[in-house]
Automatic annotation (TrEMBL):
It comes from the Bacteria. PANTHER family: 5-KETO-D-GLUCONATE 5-REDUCTASE (PTHR43669), DECAPRENYLPHOSPHORYL-2-KETO-BETA-D-ERYTHRO-PENTOSE REDUCTASE (PTHR43669:SF6). SUPFAM superfamilies: NAD(P)-binding Rossmann-fold domains. The keyword Oxidoreductase applies. One of its GO terms (molecular function) is oxidoreductase activity. It holds the Pfam family adh_short. This is Decaprenylphospho-beta-D-erythro-pentofuranosid-2-ulose 2-reductase. Keywords: Oxidoreductase.
Length: 252
């Protein structure tokens, strides 16, 4: 259970090598040691992720093989994780960005992006809800994006999947009211992580540590939805109500 000072005993990171997900794990480990389960595809990244989490003070690190698009395997992966005990905090952090112009003109790439960024989160969301409801407590944190709040021409393949994730998890939180399970949907703008290292900074770009701190605070305050940069909420409110002929003239 997450205790009175906001310290979880067990943290599950789905997308176990995610740069931003690991920053969130580090944020919670700064409150004290915890057991950490890193669920990821087999990769060299997982070795460095394990080292990173150990260095941050994890009492134990358990790697679990997990592929976000191998949907049929997910129930068994979750049974394996829960066989070792309850999970207090689960972070859904896997995702791919890709090249929008290639994705929307290539069926294979578009389907992969939709599966990793939408169907995978739905699959694990249902299983997290089932397991946490049964244990009677738990905090789910999911990475949505401002790209999903308003889907834009420049990244609509990724953005449309994030729009789906955002809606699914916000209403999953509603469906779980009264069960002891909480859902926090996070809408970062661009953050400096492995995913964006090839991109120039966009306006209001933040560091992954800013995202992690905002998530720690939001969990403490039992929030269900946050933007990371404080200006994004009002900006998005305006942008998403502009007509398309105006939006077309903006560098979005
Ligand atoms: N960085 C940003 O600006 C930003 C902004 C808004 C939202 N987000 C979201 O935040 C989350 C974390 O992103 P990040 O910045 O930490 O990027 P990241 O470091 O690239 O992490 C993404 C992770 O997803 C994993 N992944 C991809 N496909 C997978 C699959 N089929 N099965 C399992 N894992 C898979 C990758 O693992 P592999 O090593 O195996 O590829 C990688 O570890 C993502 O959902 C992203 O969309 C990011």
């Amino acid at each position: 259970m997450i205790d009175a000072v906001g310290k979880p005993q067990t943290i599950l990171l789905l997308g176990g090598a995610s740069d931003m997900g690991l920053a969130v794990v580090e944020e919670f480990l700064s409150r004290g040691p915890a057991r950490v389960i890193l669920a990821a595809r087999d990769s060299e990244d997982l070795t460095s992720a394990t080292e990173r989490v150990k260095a941050a003070g994890a009492s134990e690190v358990t790697p679990v093989k997990f592929d976000a698009v191998d949907f049929a395997s997910h129930p068994a992966v979750f049974d394996e994780i829960w066989a070792q005990g309850d999970v207090d905090l689960a972070i859904v952090a896997f995702g791919i960005l890709g090249d929008n112009e290639q994705q929307w003109q290539d069926q294979r790439q578009a389907v992969l992006a939709a599966q990793v960024n939408y169907t995978g989160p739905v699959s694990v969301g249902v299983l997290l809800a089932e397991k946490m409801k049964r244990q009677g407590h738990g905090q789910i944190v999911v990475f949505s994006s401002v790209a999903g709040e308003m889907v834009r021409r420049s990244n609509f393949v990724y953005g449309s999947a994030k729009a789906g994730v955002d809606g699914f998890y916000r209403m999953l939180g509603e469906a779980l009211r009264g069960t002891g399970v909480k859902v926090l949907t996070v809408r970062p703008g661009q953050a400096r992580t492995n995913m964006t290292k090839h991109l120039d900074d966009a306006p209001l770009t933040v560091y992954k540590e800013d995202v992690a701190r905002a998530i720690g605070k939001a969990v403490d305050n039992r929030k269900t939805l946050i933007w990371v940069h404080p200006l994004f909420q009002p900006i998005m409110l305006i942008l998403k109500h502009l007509p398309m002929f105006v939006i077309r003239k903006l560098p979005l």
